[in-house]
Amino acid sequence: ASVFGEMLTFKKMLENAKDQNERKVLLAGKVEDMINTVIRQIAFYDFECKLHEARKAGELTPDDINALWMSVQGESLGPAFEFMDGYETFWAYIPHFVHSPFYVYAYAFGDGLVNALYAVYE
User: Fold this and answer.
1) Domain of 37: which CATH number?
2) In this predicted model, what pLDDT tens digit does every residue of 13-69 receive, in sequence order?
3) What is the extent of the structural domain holding 48?
4) How far apart are CA 30 and CA 51, in angstroms?
5) Which of 5, 34, 59, 90 has its CA 20 to 30 A from that of 66?
6) How far apart are CA 85 and CA 119, in angstroms?
7) What's the rounded Cα separation, in Å, for the pair 109 and 86?
C-alpha cells in the first residue's frame, strides 16, 4: 500500500513539475529508485542463493563471501559500473541476509505488483 501511495505522489509531482528540468530530475530519481528496488534486490537474492549453495560445499571465509558478492554485483551492474574500495564487504551491512534470509525478493515483487496495479488504475 505504501508503494502505491508513493506512485500516486510521484505522478502528482510529475504532473505539477514547473519545467522540463524538474521533470527530468523527478524521472531520474524514479529510475534510480526502481533500480534500487528491483535490480538491486534481485541481485541480493541471487547473492543469497549462491552463498547458500557455496556453503553446502564447506565453510566460507570472508574472502570467499566477498568474491561471491563482487561476482553477483558485477553481473547485475555490468562493466560500466566502477566499484569503490571496500565495496566487496558491503554485503555485511545488509541485515536481511542474517535476520530475514531470502526475504529481499518481496521488494522486487511488491514494486512489480504496484506497477501492474497502477497501470490498471490509470
Assistant:
1) 1.10.1370.20
2) 999 999 999 999 999 999 998 888 888 899 999 999 999 999 999 999 999 999 999
3) 2-121
4) 30
5) 34
6) 41
7) 30
